[in-house]
Fold this protein.
Amino acid sequence: MDYKRMRRDFHAEFAPAALLSLLAGFGLLVTGCNQDETVEAGDSGAAGETVMEDWPLFRGNAGMHGESREELVPPLELAWSWEIPVDEGKRRPPFEASPVIANGVVFVGTQLGAFVALSAEDGSLLWEFEAEGSVTAPGAVRAGTVFFGDNYGFVYALDAETGEEKWRFETEGKIEGGVNVLEVDDGGRVFIGSHDYFLYGLDAETGEVLTKHETANYIVATPAIAETEGGDFIVFGGCDGLLHVISASGEGASREVEIGSYVANTSAVRDGICYVADNGGDIRAIDIASGEVAWETKTGLEFLASPAVGRERLFVAGPDKRLVAYDRVTGEEEWAFLARRSLDSSPVLSGGVLYQAGMDGRLYAIDAADGSELWQFEIGAQIKASPALSRGVLVVCGEDGVVYGFRK
């Protein structure tokens, strides 16, 4: 198990409807979602049919919506847990990476450099892979391959069933953001940003660099993908204070929208609108086709959590302990839920329920319509990583170095 001598003892023990009118007015097109699902994408399911789907990307889909079409209704029960193995007398390192789930398997990386596959049914370890550096970013799963990056700047492609390495690519800076995947006629494209200021587009089968877009600072966000009739676009906020909208093919003009503050989380794209919650405290809805700001709200907060976007509302969790619902069209605040401590984890929307983990060590279920609390579970450890939901299992990774699986 060594993990390079437990990553050198973990750096010496933790070293420091109206919407349709709006869209028509902007001339926008509906974004697409790439997911492996039991019910095909775009199919809402027959009446009474239970929708079950994977969560193969950070925030669930290529648009980074943070929404599952499954309806997981609380109360939930703790079904299983898995702990990062450490030597006796050593503390388990906290999870910073968020999990992804595909085909009944949970994939997540640790700060000791281990990337593991766990059974979503019982939490048992299926395989583990030792990366060169710590893993603090979420992975992505496509066509039997799981992709992720580490803090040494490597991007890995592993066989999702066995953990065997298929290829690796080295960037020139550490990787803190997740992977997104786009299907094109000649195969898959893997998109990932690095501290070397570049957003890379790699061939999913070989790791060959197909596109490379330079920014003016670190990229720590997971890029969102907007699929339109005018082409496929990669959308992300950077530490350079800009929202970048670039062609997935690498051809054609790119667009930059001034944000004015760095973006330390992942933006969501839905129906041609990008929703950004930046480190300067502004929440914006931006038309990716024109760069125009549809609405803006100033909060004065430094957002770490990524927003979730449903059909009608935008949900943003903040360091002021509040989870706030905004009207997606107007930006008007509809309700606010108050937790006990900061909310650094991103919310997950499932039907009419929001699941929100907090730095108070609790997992909450909140009514998405009015913000009322439906259920809570006290894990007892702070939670920064964002939950993942697939096939009736909600997976949460704690600062205690434990992965928790909840189900009805």
